[in-house]
Design goal:
13 strands; four-stranded parallel sheet; single chain; alpha/beta; six-stranded mixed sheet; Rossmann fold
Length: about 400
């Protein structure tokens, strides 16, 4: 099985044999892929060994789960630019401010990372039909990569999903099911229907997180072999937050980094902030957020199966969870566009709004190297961005 050692429950630590089809552990915990990192270290003694590899997430193949080249479903995802935000840096008095532009991925968001790896593993394991509940970008990525892999796809989307996401899924040949309510309602309907569809929901299969962890490897590599002091990440289901933390752990075991880690800051919307509430209350799990409301579709996640993992990451990293208003998100979108020439999504705008709060409240002093994760293009949110011209609609 290549460098893959076993799968392990993130909650109870039970181990599972690789090469078989899994969703959750019987205890309900998500499964993590574990590798023989001693073997990887011998194959890839340092990041310099990556220089000849392709500029995609598959440059990290030794720490990805796919065994056979023929299984890989790729459209050039990953290795997105890490850009020094020169004008914002000057404006905020934060010289070492960077943004990771995930809009450059094939389907316009970081969801392409997780779905590329997950669909590659689905093909390797002989899965033929895949389904996902999604507020937008994950659905588009699943439909695209399933189409490229020759698999059948179904997406379960809230009725108020952005138009671009609805259109792309239909165009890409997926079966599209619109559901009243939130992504939680979509997931419930998917699991009620079940049948031959394999559930690709966030953290309900082991491999999407493996694609997302490559953001940590890339940031380290793009910073010249350094770990940033701070990562600000817009958080719904939290796969990226959890995945990056896993990636940094692997890099330590590979001998690439020491024990230092970035402080991880999770950003949610004030209208849907279960992780913020749980973090502030010292809880281990995030109680479901009733009536979630926000213009940021990717943050409209009322309950996350990986809540305990996100909270663990935030506390271990000496980070924080904070919520921002929709208006502040869209102001962030506008400021990114005017200062850095990039049209980002509301989730991306939320990271800038959060950064300003962190600076104003004294959580950051200004000397840190800070990376904002801009998770998707703003061009998929034209109805929302139109509200920037009509503030009373927000």
């Amino acid at each position: 099985m290549g460098n893959l050692s076993h799968l392990e429950c993130a909650r109870c630590a039970k181990q599972f044999e690789p090469g078989k089809i899994y969703n959750l552990c019987p205890c309900g915990g998500p499964l993590f892929v574990r590798y023989d990192l001693h073997r990887v270290r011998a194959i890839l003694p340092g990041p310099d060994g990556l220089n000849s590899q392709p500029p995609t997430l598959w440059r990290y193949r030794p720490v990805l789960p796919v065994t056979h080249d023929s299984s890989i479903v790729s459209m050039g995802e990953g290795f997105t630019p890490l850009v020094h935000a020169a004008r914002l840096s000057e404006k905020l008095g934060l010289p070492n401010l960077y943004f990771k532009d995930e809009s450059r991925n094939p389907t316009g968001s970081f969801k392409a990372r997780g779905l590329s790896v997950a669909l590659s593993m689905a093909r390797e394991l002989g899965i033929k039909k895949v389904a996902i509940p999604s507020a937008g970008n994950a659905a588009g990525a699943l439909a695209a990569y399933a189409g490229r892999a020759g698999l059948e796809a179904a997406v379960f989307m809230p009725e108020d999903t952005p138009l671009a996401n609805r259109l792309e899924c239909a165009l890409l040949g997926a079966e599209v099911v619109f559901v009243p309510g939130s992504i939680k309602d979509c997931g419930q309907l998917l699991r009620e229907r079940g049948g031959a569809w394999f559930d690709m929901s966030t953290l309900r299969e082991p491999y999407r997180v493996e694609g997302k962890k490559t953001m940590a490897y890339e940031i380290f590599e793009q910073l010249g072999g350094r770990v940033p002091d701070v990562i600000v990440y817009p958080t719904g289901g939290g796969t990226g937050l959890i995945g990056m933390w896993k990636g940094f752990e692997e890099m330590e075991h590979l001998g690439w980094i020491g024990t230092a880690r970035p402080r991880m800051f999770a950003v949610q919307a004030t209208g849907c902030a279960p992780i913020v509430r749980a973090f502030a209350g010292g809880a281990e799990r995030g109680e479901e957020w009733l009536r979630p409301e926000t213009v940021a579709a990717g943050l409209r996640v009322p309950a996350a199966i990986g809540d305990f993992l996100m909270l663990r990451v935030l506390r271990e990293s000496r980070g924080l969870a904070l919520a921002v208003e929709d208006r502040a998100m869209l102001d962030g979108v506008k400021e990114f566009a005017e200062t850095e020439g990039l049209v980002t999504s509301p989730e991306g705008g939320a990271t800038l709004a959060a950064l300003k709060r962190l600076l104003a409240d004294g959580f950051l002093s200004g000397y840190e190297t800070v990376v904002l994760l801009l998770t998707a293009t703003g061009y998929k949110y034209l109805e929302v961005l139109e509200a920037l011209q009509h503030p009373r609609k927000i």
